[in-house]
Amino acid sequence: MRIETLLQIIMIIIALTIILDKDNLRLVIFSSAFSLIAASLYYMNKSPDVALAEAAIGSAIIPLIFIIAIEKQKQFIVVNHLNDEFLDRDTGKGYKVLEEFAKHYGLKLSVYKNDDGQIQGAFRERNIDLIVEKSPQDNRKYLFIGKKASILMNKLEQMTKDIEDIKIIKVEESERYD
Amino acid sequence: MRISLILVCISRLLYPFILLFGFYIILNGDKSPGGGFQGGVILATAFFITYFIDPKKIINLKLLVKIEKYLFALILIVACISYFTNGEFFTNFIPVDSPIENKRIFLILLNFFIGLKVTTGLIAVFSAFIEEGR
């Protein structure tokens, strides 16, 4: 059997694995291997130029960007507008609720105090998952403000249904709410 | 992100060699496989490796984008020099009857600037991506 045929068969198997697999991290490694085999096939078909570009982009840059994207996806960013100890790390009651929520869904919870310089992206404003405020009317209630489109907000609403002094408010994506 | 010590060591070892390979591909682009784009991508990969060495490194993005713009202008200027020597845009500025070693200069210059532009562009994209979630 020629080696090109063998590589093509392996490539088809890897492509099917990428489609059927569910684990994100393993999938990235498989796509990197796919690109490497594609690069060697390009070289065998007499186009070393394309092979160089494919090897550099497909098997180095794209997996790296995907891995960082997966890592960033695991963060749950909360902005704290309160002055009392509701969201304190050890004693706060709200922090315990959020920590339990983050632990349940495998997220990494990071609470920021109201500091604008700390939480800005490179080109646009930072993508914030949740804002915690005190209710203007009722002094004992705390408002959890988040995006309407996010599935996590629905889950959080179900989780905090029984707790009296937490109220969930969902706003549209385009609205400015901070 | 938690980064293991072995990865950091290997990255430090590989970094200069990847830089060398990138410049080799750019500067030999006119007579062997590769060229500005491929070499530029490899140079950008060499930069990405430094992200493993020092994840907290911060890049001045505005400066990077500005350098990229100037490099684009430089590529156009190099391509337009031929108007003053040959009377035609976007051709080799060295006369046609000169030996081939002299004619290479045009290709090497263009490849070099294209490679640097690709590098800065990819680094800008990547840095914006990293900065986003910090």
Automatic annotation (TrEMBL), chain A:
Q: Which GO terms describe its cellular component?
A: plasma membrane
Q: Where in the cell is it found?
A: Cell membrane
Read off the InterPro entries from this record: MrpA_C/MbhD
- Where is the chain membrane-spanning? 6-20, 27-44, 50-70
UniProt keywords (A-Z) are: Cell membrane, Membrane, Transmembrane, Transmembrane helix
Q: What residue stretch is flagged as signal peptide? A: none
Specify the superkingdom: Bacteria
Membrane topology recorded in Swiss-Prot or TrEMBL = Multi-pass membrane protein
Question: Is Transmembrane helix among the key words of this record?
Answer: yes
Q: What is this protein called?
A: MrpA C-terminal/MbhD domain-containing protein
Provenance organism: Thermohalobacter berrensis
